[in-house]
Amino acid sequence: VQLQASGGGLVQAGGSLRLSCAASGSISSINVMGWYRQAPGKQRELVAMITRGGTTTYADSVKGRFTISRNNDKNTVYLQMNSLKTEDTGVYYCNIIQPGPEHYWGQGTQVTVSS
Questions:
Q1: Is residue 95 helix, strand or coil?
Q2: Are the beta carbons of 52 and 29 closer than 8 angstroms?
């Protein structure tokens, strides 16, 4: 399984970015896709995840600002990030969990929010 993420960049506080991540390879019909982030000097943390059926989970810090969605036909997960804050800065990694469990990670995309 390979994950290819895109959409990171530099944005001012209050702005928006949309991340995309496409999965390819042996994709199970049962899986959870998600986004994690890692800020400098901090551990990687969950941002949001979504099941194939559309059930979502968000970190408290992003609730009301970020929206995760997916296109099952394209095995793609999206993260719409609005009202960005400087503390949202970090490397964002997409992830897929399949039965096993099997965890796969994308290469990471940098998000920088300036004040």
A1: strand
A2: yes
User: CA 39, CA 73: separation in Å to the nearest integer?
Assistant: 32
> What SS3 state is found at 84?
coil
Distance CA 84, CA 65 (A): 8
Compute how many other C-beta atoms are within 10 angstroms of the C-beta atom of residue 52: 15
Count of alpha carbons within 13 angstroms of residue 44, beta-carbon side: 11
Bridge-based pairing state of the strands 17-24 and 76-81: antiparallel
In the chain, which residue ranges form alpha helices assigned H by DSSP? none
pLDDT tens, position by position, 1-52 = 999 999 999 999 999 999 999 999 999 988 999 999 999 899 999 999 999 9
Q: Is 115 helix (H, G, I), strand (E, B) or coil?
A: coil
